[in-house]
């Protein structure tokens, strides 16, 4: 492996907290983070979820199903994203990541055979040996295929990458007869779009992909109808004017027709969907003769770029974001792919879109422009929770936990970059809410199925509690996440993480069992705010053997969860949210912990095993 790549992997592993894993697994996560950046956004838990390594992975290290620009892990998530939209987009991505500097035709063929196997399984062919996490991917592809009428393309767009650390692009390996035959068999299934191809990438391509994280580079577009805005301190160049629909699409879409990576990160509103009233009005303007009045009926786009070069009427923009005009952008792309434009592409040339583009090399200036154009940003409920005095005290307590401790990102704005610390050790308010609900109040079902309820003002998860209680809750979740990261066989249980956290807490604090069984959060809250309630329980992970007790309890909780949900696991797939969200499961699992400790509650078991939906 090249030293340069090795150093980048090491930096990534240190930053994300993956440095306990072998270099091959670090590389898989590094590649996942680089190639799927616009979907994963640097979230460690999501990076772990797309890496399939371990067991019978059929040579597929990374796999993702993308719906309407967002990564999904369960069929129910697809349904939520599609809603009542007339047409949606789907995309499947398969990646194998090898630290080798060679393109091994046999390994490439094995990888392609794995893609073929997963696809066949999705189409209904019986595959006896498919690993659970590959079965999850197959079931998602199956859902998309069955609901093809709800997507804007008959066949599914698919990207296949074989990634190495080689200095070359591996073009010779593409000519290998085994590789060509394997790729042909996938095409012959007819599931994926005809232009399906295998991309062999080395160190140069990885570097190119990583540069895309800083925004699109040197994107060329025509901006002849513009006026210069006088420059001021911190602003290099600024223009205002109108740009044709065809040229706007160059700024918005890459060669595959996807939105360019990261161009909406500083825009507070995601796409609100085609049925949103504002978007309906934009769409109506585009469809009718009123499109000639588009510059007067629409505010257009505000773009902030790191650099902007002009040669006559040709502009080259790099590192840019659309900080205002996200809805307009999405409606333009929808309209551009409509039958109306397919029949008459010249409509793109006759449409004019208002554009203001500002160029600045100063990140503070770019940030101020982004904020100023988004003053309508709503304050989230978790932001209000984070402004309370107790939250500030919790933040301080976390900050004093040392280099091997955790950090609470009280003022998060969507990215763990705000704290210079391994991302697996950084906890946001929403995550802390769920951790406290599950481990301190036994409300694991609510943490799984209704996390927004925990953000309501006055909720039980925040109170005049000892600050170490919050750290205790976050520490259990952190330890469980690390256990999942190093124990591939248990990853199928990940949807039940908060149930597992509840059980771990009950194992190390057995007096919680009765409280969890009673389920009266207001009574528990009052007890925890009083001295007696605090003295009965251990929350300081740095005192005594509590940390070791947590470590020892995790495998026990995993074992109970695996046994309880074995009915679902026997289907050969991972647990889903719908399998675990019921309060019945919460109650049954705490009963089983009581049995294990020899302190079973008086009430009888609710259901003997099986788990699943109830």
From TrEMBL:
<protein>
    <submittedName>
        <fullName>AIPR family protein</fullName>
    </submittedName>
</protein>
<dbReference type="InterPro" id="IPR018891">
    <property type="entry name" value="AIPR_C"/>
</dbReference>
<dbReference type="Pfam" id="PF10592">
    <property type="entry name" value="AIPR"/>
</dbReference>
<feature type="domain" description="Abortive phage infection protein C-terminal">
    <location>
        <begin position="264"/>
        <end position="514"/>
    </location>
</feature>
């Amino acid at each position: 492996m090249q030293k340069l790549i090795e150093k980048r992997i090491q930096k990534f592993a240190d930053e994300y907290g993956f440095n306990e894993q072998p270099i091959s697994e670090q590389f898989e996560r590094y590649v996942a983070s680089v190639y799927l950046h616009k979907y994963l956004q640097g979230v460690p838990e999501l990076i772990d979820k797309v890496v399939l390594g371990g067991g019978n992975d059929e040579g597929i290290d990374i796999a993702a199903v993308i719906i309407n620009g967002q990564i999904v892990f369960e069929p129910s998530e697809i349904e939520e994203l599609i809603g009542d939209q007339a047409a949606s987009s789907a995309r499947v991505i398969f990646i194998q990541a090898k630290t080798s500097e060679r393109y091994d035709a046999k390994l490439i063929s094995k990888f392609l055979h794995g893609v073929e196997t997963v696809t066949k399984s999705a189409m209904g062919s019986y595959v006896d040996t498919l690993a659970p996490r590959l079965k999850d991917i197959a079931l998602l592809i199956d859902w998309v295929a069955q609901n093809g009428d709800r997507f804007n393309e008959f066949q599914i767009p698919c990207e296949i990458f074989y990634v190495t650390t080689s200095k070359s692009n591996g073009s010779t390996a593409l000519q290998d007869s085994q590789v060509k035959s394997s790729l042909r068999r996938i095409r012959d299934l007819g599931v994926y779009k005809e232009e399906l191809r295998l991309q062999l990438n080395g160190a140069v391509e990885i570097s190119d992909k990583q540069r895309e994280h800083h925004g699109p580079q040197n994107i060329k577009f025509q901006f002849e109808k513009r006026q210069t805005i006088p420059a001021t301190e911190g602003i290099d160049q600024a223009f205002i004017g109108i740009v044709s629909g065809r040229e706007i699409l160059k700024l918005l879409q890459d060669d595959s027709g996807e939105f360019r990576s990261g161009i909406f990160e500083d825009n507070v509103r995601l796409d609100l969907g085609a049925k949103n009233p504002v978007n309906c009005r934009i769409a109506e303007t585009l469809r009718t003769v009123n499109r000639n009045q588009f510059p007067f009926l629409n505010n257009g786009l505000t773009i902030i770029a790191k650099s902007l070069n002009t040669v006559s009427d040709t502009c080259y923009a790099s590192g840019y974001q659309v900080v205002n005009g996200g809805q307009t952008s999405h409606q333009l792309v929808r309209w551009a792919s409509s039958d109306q434009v397919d029949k008459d592409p010249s409509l793109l040339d006759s449409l004019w879109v208002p554009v203001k583009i500002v160029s600045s090399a100063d990140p503070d200036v770019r940030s101020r422009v982004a904020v100023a154009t988004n003053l309508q940003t709503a304050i989230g409920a978790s932001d209000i929770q984070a402004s309370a005095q107790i939250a500030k005290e919790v933040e301080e307590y976390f900050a004093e936990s040392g280099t091997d401790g955790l950090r609470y990102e009280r003022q998060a704005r969507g990215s763990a970059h705000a704290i210079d610390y391994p991302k697996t050790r950084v906890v946001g308010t929403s995550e802390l809410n769920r951790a406290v609900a599950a481990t301190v109040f036994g409300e694991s079902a609510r943490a799984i199925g209704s996390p927004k309820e925990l953000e309501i003002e006055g909720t039980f998860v925040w109170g005049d509690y000892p600050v170490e209680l919050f750290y205790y809750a976050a520490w259990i979740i952190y330890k469980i996440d690390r256990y999942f990261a190093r124990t591939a066989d248990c990853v199928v249980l990940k949807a039940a993480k908060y149930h597992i956290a509840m059980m771990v807490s009950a194992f190390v604090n057995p007096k919680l069992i009765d409280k969890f069984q009673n389920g009266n959060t207001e009574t528990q809250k009052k007890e925890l705010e009083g001295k007696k309630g605090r003295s009965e329980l251990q929350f300081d992970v740095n005192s005594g053997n509590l940390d070791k007790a947590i470590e020892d309890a995790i495998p026990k909780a995993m074992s109970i969860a695996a046994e309880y949900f074995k009915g679902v696991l026997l289907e050969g797939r991972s647990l889903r949210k719908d399998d675990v969200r019921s309060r019945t499961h919460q109650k049954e699992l705490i009963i089983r912990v009581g049995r294990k400790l020899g302190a079973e509650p008086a009430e009888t078991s609710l259901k003997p095993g099986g788990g699943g939906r109830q």
